[in-house]
Amino acid sequence: MRTWLTNIQWCPGCGDTLIVAAIKKAFQELGIESHERVVVSGVGCSGKASQYIDGYAAETLHWRTLPFATGVKMTNPELTVLATGGDGDGYGIGMGHFIHACKRDLNITYIVMDNENYALTTGQASPTTPIWAKTKTTPDGNTSTPFDPVEMAKQAWCRFATWADSVKFAEMKDIIKEAIKHDGFSLVNIHQACPSYKRW
User: Fold this and answer.
1) Nearest CA among 73, 74, 75, 18 for reference residue 40
2) Strand stretches in 10-165, DSSP E
3) What is the pLDDT of residue 4?
4) CATH number, domain at 59?
5) E strands within 60-159?
6) What is the pLDDT of residues 36-49, one digit of tens each?
7) CA gyration radius for the chain?
8) pLDDT tier, 61 (very low <50, low <70, confident <90, very high otherwise)
């Protein structure tokens, strides 16, 4: 047995586990074999995603997920390229790359595992933390209005940008399938549980 596919390192109850299972099921149902796809991840809790999906993969630098995925797609356009990231990775440090990926409209699927905090570094406020939520960096409540990543993607001319929820597995899986089938850049922002640090 390949333990790297089964030895999950996320906290019990983390939504990332369901998201990865939905991605794997989507690939299976679409008939996309392991040699036909590349999963690119960054740093953060979501960074482990590429290790749990059989096939070509790369765990890249913080906020460099989309530039790396862009390079893969441009080098071999026949590959199905799926990038994963978190709300901090994608909408904080990596915001510039995100906007330009939307504008370039290369055929890349971007799955953002949005737990509304920087969970890997123990629960600081992120760009999607709700207003007044208490975190390590906002002990009196977050005063910054959170980003709406789906609306931001649409404003940057992304033609496929939508929400999903990790607890609605079948629906999430079908949304991921549609995103993969879309001819162009697609964003699926997935609300997910974070039992260790998300208290709102």
Assistant:
1) 73
2) 37-41, 56-59, 80-86, 108-114, 117-118, 124-125, 160-165
3) 45
4) 3.40.50.970
5) 80-86, 108-114, 117-118, 124-125
6) 999 999 888 888 89
7) 16
8) confident
